[in-house]
Design goal:
Blueprint lengths: L2 H15 L3 H12 L4 H8 L3 H22 L2
Helix pairs in contact: 1-2, 1-4, 2-4, 3-4
Length: 71
C-alpha cells in the first residue's frame, strides 16, 4: 500500500470515530467494510432510505472535516 493511501485511510478512520454513534456504525460498514446499503439495512434493521441518507450525511461531514484539516 502506498503511504499516501495509508495516511488517507487513517484520516477517514479518525473522521469516522468523530461521528455520532448512529452515523459511525453506518459509515464504518459502508466506507471501511464496503457493505452495500442493502447489507447495512439488513444488519442494522433500518430502512434502506435511512441508510442512504445517513451515508450521504456521513460523507459530507467527513469531507468537511478533511477539507478543514487540509487548509
Amino acid at each position: 500500500i502506498m503511504p499516501s493511501l495509508v495516511g488517507s485511510e487513517m484520516c477517514i478512520r479518525d473522521s469516522i470515530k468523530a461521528l455520532s454513534p448512529a452515523l459511525r456504525d453506518i459509515a464504518y460498514l459502508s466506507f471501511v467494510e464496503n457493505c452495500s446499503a442493502g447489507e447495512i439495512s439488513e444488519l442494522l434493521d433500518m430502512k434502506i432510505n435511512t441508510v442512504h441518507s445517513s451515508i450521504s450525511r456521513a460523507r459530507k461531514i467527513i469531507s468537511r472535516k478533511h477539507t478543514e484539516n487540509n487548509q
